[in-house]
Amino acid sequence: MADILQKVLQEYGNKDKCKIRDPTKVEAILQKLASDGPSKLQVITDFDFTLSRFHKDGKRCDSCHGILDHSPLMPDSFREKAKALYEKYYHIELDHKMTVEEKIPHMITWYKGSHNLLIEAQVTKQKIQEMVLTSRALLRDSAVNVLSYLNDHHVPVLIFSAGVGNILEEILHREKAFFPNVEVISNYMLFNEDGECTSFREPLIHMFNKNETALDNPDYFQDLKNRHNALVLGDSIGDLDMGSGIHNPGALLRIGFLNDKIDERMDSLYNNFDVVLVDDQTFDFVNVVSRMVC
Length: 294
Ligand code: C5P
Known about the structure:
alpha/beta, 11 helices, about 45% helix, globular
């Protein structure tokens, strides 16, 4: 009997968008999450197109990188080169016929190339703030409510992103969503005294090394060692390992947001995430689960 799951689906109200390969397993995870409660829970989420929307009003939204890549405040030459990199490597990122091992060297080349372009363009802190304010980087509907609710219940949230930390933080500030329970692990730009980007903090985080080896704060999971349960939220296979640093993992509910190339990528997400939300631009499912646990 899938009691809690039925309740969650009823409250979520969007059953058509929710694909679950093994309802019995998900029911068992939900039972444990509910019985252990908020003191055992942590949340680990990807940022771009997981916490943020993929589209709105029929138009694509921006990722952290996309904000700069599309901004009229950046020089034309930067935008052209960034676009060329995106067109070359985004297909590789999503290619369901390539293995992760085959993709990784390409992703590293993409990231290094993008970071170098930002350094060459001498992008400044101030420009970043301006670009974020006018960008199409938007959080999913109800995402701020969920972050606020988790904060009220003292549940730590780790935003683990292969985007750009400085930009992501600006978006959280803009949305008044940078609650004290939020910690960010991402690629951070380092600036000189004139506020220009001169390098990026190591280690490089790309979409396929989001695991405990990419943590610049190795104590993060140690500090949360009594929180064995987690919601792990992502939009890519590379997000599945974000909880690999959890001590003695208990109930982990992996929720995948399927945004792009839906038909080609459905099998891959369906076979790897516990729950797949198909083209759902809200955080409603996470909201219902959070309220059921806390
Ligand atoms: O996994 P995560 O969502 O954190 O990864 C960041 C995303 O940013 C990737 O999915 C990738 O498509 C996107 N990206 C980009 N431009 C870059 C590098 C990454 O749009 N230069």
